[in-house]
Amino acid sequence: MPPDVPVPASWRIALPHSTAAVPIARALVRTALSDIHAPADSDTAELLTA
What we know:
This protein is mainly alpha-helical and about 50 residues long. It has a domain at about 20-50. It is built from two helices and no strands. Helix 1 crosses helix 2 (about 40-50).
């Protein structure tokens, strides 16, 4: 990406099309919430990936 192009505000991650994707998605949501210092707990990650 050229240096003058802003970084996109979103990203996309390929997940398996199986039940194995659920814990991966929850971990990604927990990490993203933690990175932005959101006042959320692990229940939030589970609700967002239900």
